[in-house]
Amino acid sequence: MEKPDNTENKTFETGKKKKGSSTTAENVAFVRALESLKPEGERVCYDPYAVRFLSQQYLMFMEMAARDPSRTPFPGVHNSLSARVRYFDDFVKRSIDEGLHQLVILGAGFDTRAYRIEGLRGNVRVFEVDHPGTQSVKMEKIKDIFGSLPDHVEYVSVDFETEDFGQRLIEYGYERSQKTVFIMEGLIYYLPPKAVEEMLSFIAKNSGIGSAIIFDYVHESSIDRTDGICGVQCKACDQNEIKNATKDMAKQGEPYKFGIKEGMLESFLARQGFSHVCNVTSEDYKKAYFHEVNENRPVCCLSYFAHAVVK
Ligand SMILES: C[S@@+](CC[C@H](N)C(=O)[O-])C[C@H]1O[C@@H](n2cnc3c(N)ncnc32)[C@H](O)[C@@H]1O
Predict the structure, then answer these.
(1) Could you give the residue ranges of the DSSP H alpha helices within 98-163?
(2) What is the CATH number of the domain that holds 130?
């Protein structure tokens, strides 16, 4: 099948104008790279490729924080993001063992699971879906790292706010009858509610038996829609730092837009066509991943992970 053109380096046309690749995608790669410098047994997640996605400025921050951990930016957020990467990795590994056919990574940014999780290549078709501005940078980096783009990954460029992502996925060979996991990591709070609902509705209506979603979210009360900043207290995070960081992200074109009402996760997902909902709080992932030398690492209580199965 002839593939649609994926090379055009468009910019975000929605919300505030943003040129080039996503800053938040680089922020998460920075967290993975920094955490990966820790010794095995201490690090919560491991991504040997993340460092390759960092610009000079981020590399400098990484070296500073590696030399002096007290200079890790937003420690609570850093730890929560590291736990998120680990939790989602573990979920994908379990899904592979249970007979996964397709993995769709929505808002993939600089996600490297397709290249580092054993059992994907050769068994599972991976679709990385992101805005063209970020995706073209990602594809160049992948070619730099591995010499070419791997056969088991399809790169689908879409703006979730203005394009029909389901249609694009199908154009790239997504099979609606196959068991699929959809990852939405660090994504849904950047989308308007309508785009989130359309995304979930496509998944619920167009995926095989046993298909699942996994994502992270914040409560609606954390979002201040006037300028997209986070307005709720977290004991682990310096409130001014969080406000300034989210305000900066909003200015750069990536404001928070969507949250789920507290206590309403299950009914929200049931309405969209999902069952077996699992909600993971910061206490849950702290208990699962932060032991011994990591016991005192703070986590940000604003972020939750969730997964569910298509009904
Ligand atoms: C915080 S990053 C997360 C990246 C990756 N999932 C990770 O966890 O490392 C958010 C990603 O969502 C993508 N994104 C945000 N809004 C989008 C939109 N309207 N259309 C397509 N992609 C979008 C950005 O390009 C970026 O790669």
Answers:
(1) 113-116, 132-146
(2) 3.40.50.150
115 CA → ligand 1 middle, Å:
18
Structure confidence by residue, pLDDT tens digits, 98-137: 999 999 999 999 999 999 999 999 999 999 999 999 999 9
User: Counting Cβ atoms within 10 Å, is residue 58 exposed (0-12), middle (13-18) or buried (19+)?
Assistant: middle
Ligand 1 center from residue 6 Cα (angstroms): 17
**299 C-alpha vs ligand 1 centroid, how far in Å?**
22
* Geometric angle at alpha carbon 140, from 247 and 164, rounded to 5°: 65
* Ligand 1 centroid distance, CA of 293 (Å): 32
Domain assignment present for residue 62? The answer is yes
Domain that holds residue 75: 23-310
Task: Decide if 1 is inside a domain.
Answer: no
Q: Which atom of ligand 1 is nearest to the CA of 195?
A: 19
Number of domains in the chain: 1
Beta strands 223-224; 125-130: pairing state: unpaired
- Minimal-distance CA residue to ligand 1 atom 4: 109
User: In 3D, which of 216, 242, 228, 194 has the Cα closest to residue 73?
Assistant: 242
The answer to whether residue 13 sits within a structural domain is: no
Q: Is residue 9 part of a domain?
A: no
pLDDT digits (tens, 9 = 90+) for 167-197: 999 999 999 999 999 999 999 999 999 999 9
- Ligand 1 neighbours, Cβ below 6 Å, are 22, 24-25, 28, 107-111, 130-131, 134, 158-161, 185-187, 190
Alpha helix (H) residue ranges in the chain:
23-36, 56-67, 75-97, 113-116, 132-146, 165-171, 193-205, 239-251, 265-272, 282-289
